[in-house]
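User: I'll paste a sequence; please echo it back and then give the predicted structure.

Assistant: Echoing your sequence first, then the prediction.
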Amino acid sequence: MSDEHKLKELRERIDAIDSDIGKLISERARCALEVAAVKKAATESPGADTTAPTLYYRPEREAQVLRRAMERNSGPLDDEEMARLFREIMSACLALEEPIKVAFLGPEGTFTQQAALKHFGNSAVTRPLGAIDEVFREVEAGAVNFGVVPVENSTEGVINHTLDTFMNSNLRICGEVELRIHHHLMISDVTRQDSITRVYSHAQSLAQCRKWLDSHFPHVERIAVASNAEAARRVKGEWNSAAIAGDMAADLYGLKILAEKIEDQPDNSTRFLIIGTQEVPASGDDKTSLMVSMRNNPGALHDLLEPFHRYRIDLTRVETRPSSSGTWNYVFFIDFAGHVDDERVANTLHDVGNRAADLKVLGSYPRGVL
């Protein structure tokens, strides 16, 4: 068989497969519309709570679908790529039921927007806001369904502003996203490469690329700005500057990437939280986040952590922040594996609550899927 004939057969096979995929996606979309109709009818039935919003987006259901897609994956696409494809199909089908509105820490082109699209898909309606507390306020006011805010970076640690905002908010954590962060050095079409005297970026990005800058641009001024997208915007019209930002910012502002992946740590990643108003049922692989205030007594930290050890609960993070209620009082932010509906978790929270001055469950939510 000639190569040309073999290619013709393969292309015909691909065309047939594409036809089947299209039919199945359309069938799935029709099922999604039927689901929406059933949910709407339930809220309009006699005796139904008409004040409660219809929940079209179910975080635990989405997580289960993505996990099954990865479990069934036999290659050659890797699990992350398979999950991304299914995420976009679900996003498009959900938009048929009701487009989901998401606020994120802006402006456009930031890693937070990238995290929002990774979690909700490109059919979500995203809205950039200028500060973390603004994202919280938009969700609390009901102007959007969810918000996306950064909470910690593997290199630079926690984002304290996010933790502090939870102290005065009734919002719940509904999910998490972990995003691999790649920083690129970029210039505009008017930049003179041999005349670069300043580099713009967010303070954390500058810190994450410090060694690379020390080696390649030791004498260039490093200027911290509000976001990497803002850095890219500034460079667009300057002949003597460069920016450190991600792919989305380069595409948004039409910049040329001069050097790729200049972060000092190759496994650099940032964790983002999905904040909303709904409680999320167990998905089968969950995390729970707490905010705990302890009395200022000797052994307070031991008293706080002992029940987790006794019930064999896996702690994934413990952070301390000063309390706004008094000098030298502290609030502990704790993440652990499990859901509040789990018996061991419920027993642990009961014991911690008896020892704490105050305990607030920020949310139980599906563990981030890739």
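The first strand starts at residue 101 and ends at 105. Residues 184-267 form a domain with the D-Maltodextrin-Binding Protein; domain 2 fold (CATH 3.40.190.10).
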